[in-house]
Specification:
single chain, 2 domains, alpha/beta, about 40% helix, four-stranded antiparallel β-sheet, Aspartate Aminotransferase, domain 1, Aspartate Aminotransferase, domain 2, 13 strands, seven-stranded mixed β-sheet
Length: about 375
């Protein structure tokens, strides 16, 4: 039995065309891009081409693209790098940010020499940042740094980043958005979001792991996290991962070409899925908020999410529980907690995130399998009672 993959928000398979683009840079074109000979020049040209591809995908100049090893590094580079140049003040983040934003923000408050304060923005029951709370937070203490994700990795709910950025800019704050989950699933334009910096990642768009980018405003000054030979305009020293960067660039190009078709495809599947789930009595988190078209985060009351995930895996379906977004620290979802979801219901959360390779037939088969599993679990529960 071939397992069906419904966890595209966690990672994606490398596209065949991406792999083909990468292969020469493992053996034939293996030169160090900092070397002056032909082997090095070939690698440098490949990186330059990838930089253009990434830049084009979000409407910026290639010089604004800083390659990193992953989204976590890029988010840390902005938060810690900006803090290294700014006078200690307040940093504002949403309560539903990924840990790689929340944790470095918390670290700033622990500094011995400089006193940063952290304020988390509240979200409503649908998972959207409350704009009135943004105003309140900024009036309490004008921030120097603000970071609000474009789309949440669990719920798929899309945030009003441009509106938040406008408020922050008026106070002179530097604004960042973690656009990792949104990128490739909806159109993302750097200028339209009105931010100073934005994080993207390769492995969420059918590119390889180990490549990401921080997109920065041309006037932004950051302190590097990694010092050395001055690579990436001095912002990220270390010999570049040429194959991964090449793959990232190709994935950006393909994603941009296929986006409209993919959005139509996954939206159709999600509509079918959620119609049936609601008929089964499921709660769909963020149902009435703008969401990524591929993401469905739901709970069937009294059916524990972790149990359902295990049973679905045995039936041939790879999905995620609410806590699986941070597998190193299993427990309740901080996202659902921030949304005010009752703890017992939050324990029932399951996330399905689809991609272009999924089909309507897979959704139908999944729903049939889910119905059988839920009936079995309810029978077991009734016997135990």
């Amino acid at each position: 039995m071939e397992e069906v993959y419904f966890d595209y928000n966690a990672t994606t398979p490398v596209d065949d065309a991406v792999l083909d683009a990468m292969m020469p840079y493992f053996q034939k074109k293996f030169g160090n891009p900092s070397s002056g000979h032909n082997f090095g020049t070939a690698s440098r040209q490949a990186i330059n081409q990838a930089r253009k591809q990434v830049a084009t995908s979000v409407g910026v100049q290639p010089s604004q693209v800083v390659f990193t090893s992953g989204g976590s590094e890029a988010n840390n580079l902005f938060i810690q790098g900006a803090a290294g140049f700014l006078k200690a003040s307040r940093i504002i983040v949403s309560a539903i940010e990924h840990p790689c934003v929340i944790r470095p923000a918390k670290e700033l408050t622990r500094s011995v020499n400089e006193k940063w304060s952290l304020r988390k923005l509240m979200v409503d029951g649908s998972g959207r940042v409350i704009l009135d709370d943004v105003d309140k937070a900024m009036s309490e203490h004008p921030p120097s740094l603000v970071s609000v994700m474009l789309a949440n990795n669990e719920t798929g709910v899309i945030q009003e980043v441009a509106a938040i950025a406008e408020k922050a800019r008026k106070l002179g704050a530097w604004v960042h958005t973690d656009a990792i989950q949104a990128f490739g699933k909806i159109p993302v334009n750097f200028s339209s979001l009105k931010v100073h910096a934005m994080t993207l990642s390769s492995h969420k768009i059918c590119g390889p792991k180990g490549a990401a980018a921080l997109i920065i405003d041309k006037e932004l000054i950051l302190k590097p996290l990694i010092f050395g030979g001055g690579h990436e305009n001095g912002l990220r020293s270390g010999t570049e991962n040429v194959p991964a960067i090449v793959g990232f660039g190709k994935a950006c190009e393909l994603s941009r070409m296929r986006m409209e078709e993919t959005i139509t495809h996954v939206t159709k599947m999600r509509t079918l899925l959620e119609k049936r789930l609601l008929e089964m009595g499921a709660v769909v988190f963020g149902l009435h908020a703008p969401r990524l078209p591929n993401t469905c985060y739901f709970a069937l009351p009294n059916i524990e999410g972790e149990t359902l995930v295990i049973r679905l895996e045995k039936a041939g379906y790879a999905v995620a529980s609410g806590a699986a977004c941070s597998s190193a620290t299993p427990g309740k979802s901080h996202v659902l907690d921030a949304m005010g979801i009752e703890p017992m219901l939050a324990r029932c959360a399951v996330r399905i995130s689809m991609g272009s390779s999924n089909t309507d037939e897979q959704i139908d088969a999944f729903l049939k399998a889910l119905t059988i599993i839920v009936q079995e679990l309810k029978r077991i529960s009734s016997v135990m009672i």
